[in-house]
């Protein structure tokens, strides 16, 4: 776990605490543990931004702030091994149509709109045609999350307002700048993306066979590699960076939800003194 302190600023009463949640597939379940620890320490988040899995976790928290429900959903998802969300399609735009994922998001988030959330929230996606980041903070939350999670090749792009959108992790894996533009200060970033030489670290045993990784793993790891190269610029501007120790967990290990959540708690716990010093500055 790494914590880096940035410049300490003005009085707490004039500040809005922002929390940026990274992409990271199953590793992103650690975000739940971070949120739980912050709640226990009475560190109240005023703004949230997320990318890919971070967008899903952030959206669910921004809607209800119900950690117990989030933990239950994460464990339930792990028991189903995520394969139940696959609806294969002839690969014109992606291998998976995404309707089942859309239905899952509807069941979790409903038709709530960004403006109705308890905590201001935004998520990051990428316009596949213009190669520009798109910040989504209007309309139906589930549609924004679906766009932010649309892994190229694997999932068909989401079409929103005439644009075809894919996973925000390609350009902004930890959406710190989005929070800064929303007026957050200070900003706490949570990163679960491997930041070492081996971005395949934690690959499941099924992907280490003689024939090499399958197309699903290739799609995920391609995004991981690109995201890891973007980390430094994406994290710049964060006042505290929390990095749960989840590199040993594969992108698809949703059945290890409880372990991820525990690692998120542990990483946040180590960061609490630094966060409190920052807020008291």
From TrEMBL:
Active-site residue numbers: 52, 167
Keyword Cell cycle in annotation: no
Keywords: Hydrolase, Lipid degradation, Lipid metabolism
PROSITE patterns given in the database record: PNPLA (PS51635)
Every PNPLA domain range: 19-180
GO biological process: lipid catabolic process
Gene Ontology molecular function, alphabetical: hydrolase activity
Motif (GXSXG) on chain: 50-54
Entry coiled-coil feature ranges: none
UniProt motif DGA/G: location: 167-169
Superkingdom of origin: Bacteria
PANTHER family registered for this protein in UniProt: NEUROPATHY TARGET ESTERASE/SWISS CHEESE D.MELANOGASTER (PTHR14226), NTE FAMILY PROTEIN RSSA (PTHR14226:SF76)
Protein name in UniProt: Patatin-like phospholipase family protein
Lineage: Bacteria, Bacillati, Chloroflexota, Dehalococcoidia, Dehalococcoidales
């Amino acid at each position: 776990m790494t914590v880096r302190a940035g410049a300490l600023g003005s009085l707490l009463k004039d500040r809005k605490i922002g929390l940026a949640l990274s992409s990271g597939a199953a590793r992103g379940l650690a975000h739940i543990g971070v949120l739980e620890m912050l709640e226990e320490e009475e560190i109240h988040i005023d703004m949230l931004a997320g990318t890919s899995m971070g967008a899903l976790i952030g959206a669910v928290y921004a809607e209800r702030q119900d950690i117990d429900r989030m933990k239950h959903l994460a464990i339930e998802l792990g028991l189903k091994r995520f394969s139940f969300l696959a609806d294969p399609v002839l690969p014109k735009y992606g291998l998976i149509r995404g309707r089942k994922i859309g239905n899952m998001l509807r069941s979790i988030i409903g038709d709530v709109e960004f403006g109705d959330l308890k905590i201001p929230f935004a998520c990051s996606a990428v316009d596949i045609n213009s190669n520009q980041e798109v910040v989504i903070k209007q309309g139906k939350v589930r549609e924004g999350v679906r766009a932010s999670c649309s892994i190229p090749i694997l999932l068909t792009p989401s079409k929103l307002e005439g644009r075809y959108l894919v996973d925000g992790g390609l350009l902004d894996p930890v959406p710190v700048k989005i929070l800064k533009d929303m007026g957050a200060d200070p900003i706490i970033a949570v990163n679960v993306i491997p930041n070492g030489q081996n971005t395949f670290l934690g690959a499941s045993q099924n992907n280490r066979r003689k024939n090499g990784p399958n197309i699903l793993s290739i799609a995920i790891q391609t995004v991981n590699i690109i995201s890891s190269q973007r980390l430094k610029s994406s994290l710049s501007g964060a006042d505290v960076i929390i990095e749960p120790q989840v590199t040993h967990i594969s992108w698809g290990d949703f059945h290890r939800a409880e372990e991820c959540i525990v690692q998120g708690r542990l990483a946040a716990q180590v960061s609490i003194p630094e966060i409190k010093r920052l807020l008291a500055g």
